[in-house]
Amino acid sequence: MDKVIVTGGCGYIGAHTIVDLISKDYYVISIDDNSKSDPKILEGIQQITGKKVKNYQVDLKDKKALFEVLNKHKDAMGIIHFAAYKSVPESVEKPLKYYSNNLIGLTNLLEGVSKFEIPNFVFSSSCSVYGNVEKLPVSEDTPMGVAESPYARTKQMGEDILRDYVKSFDGTNNKAVNVVLLRYFNPVGAHPSGIIGEIPLGVPNNLTPFITQTAIGIREKVTVFGNDYATRDGSGLRDYIHVMDIADAHTKALQYLKEKPLTQNPEVFNLGTGNGVTVLEMIKAFEKVSGKSLNYVIGPRRPGDIEAIYADNQKAIKELGWKIQYNIDDMMEAAWKWEQKFRRG
Ligand code: WQD
Known about the structure:
With 345 residues, the chain is of the alpha/beta class. The protein has helices spanning 12-23, 41-49, 63-72, 88-93, 95-115, 150-167, 207-215, 243-259, 279-290, 314-320, 328-343; strands spanning 3-7, 27-31, 54-56, 78-81, 120-126, 178-184, 186-188, 222-225, 237-238, 240-242, 267-271, 277-278, 296-299. Residues 86, 88, 126-128, 184, 186, 205-207, 210, 222-225, 236, 238, 279, 302, 305 line the site of UDP-4-deoxy-4-formamido-beta-L-arabinopyranose.
């Protein structure tokens, strides 16, 4: 049974990816300091999969503690690296916290990958590396744009660190490592069982948790940030993708790395559905699947927001054998089911 180390395994995408990995017979261990996540989610993973996943509560910035864990699990066939802070507004408020956590965590981890010769590495990147794009859809060849936030810049720098790291392999001083970079678009939804999902931390910045918290009565209304964009109904347009589709792409990326020869450049893959959906369309989809009418108002644009983005996802479909299983209604249904279960405690 292949072993995989998942950093940030108690987080939203990390936990859903662990469920998918276990369903494909991987043995998984997690490294997560739980500074932004709750280890209780591991109980949900066990309920779904029947498997108990061990989490090492270690901060990746603590190299000594991190190396102890990697030494114990140096037989792992790969690492999937999710552990990073991801709030766009918080990164604007506390940039140094984001640069140190996201970048020192990454470089410590890569030093461990070389020291313990772990052969494969999957990096959690983001469509936010593209910034404001002119031509849509964005493909992997679309150059990285001006990052809209320190968060997005840590993803751009993370990718550059990995490109330089891979280039440094000359077969002698550094054993070569196979690397892929996965650029997520807007992850939404929860495991269909409703047993795990995104555990909210404070007031949500993202649209979908704000919709479900408004519907359940925790928030008074949803504010649509602007309806004067050059989109079909004036509201912002994004490529929303079900978290289980994102999870599946990670397992497929590991399979891809296992089979493919080492190359000098990390492969990049867009993980989006290829369909752009507007804020008002998301609200309508939620009202349709929940049968509830949502209280929302039109407000001013949110500073730093881009107008529209959606993916050309053909490379992941062709080279990873990935296919999208879930649509917007499935995402909204799963998000609403999770919100109701989570609040029932
Ligand atoms: C989506 C749309 C808002 C809240 C996210 C992550 C980022 C990255 C990309 C992974 C926008 C509108 C939102 C609200 C609204 N993911 N909105 N009212 O900004 O695209 O970025 O996906 O790396 O980390 O943050 O997502 O959900 O905040 O906004 O009108 O109350 O919904 O203007 O058009 P965003 P979001």
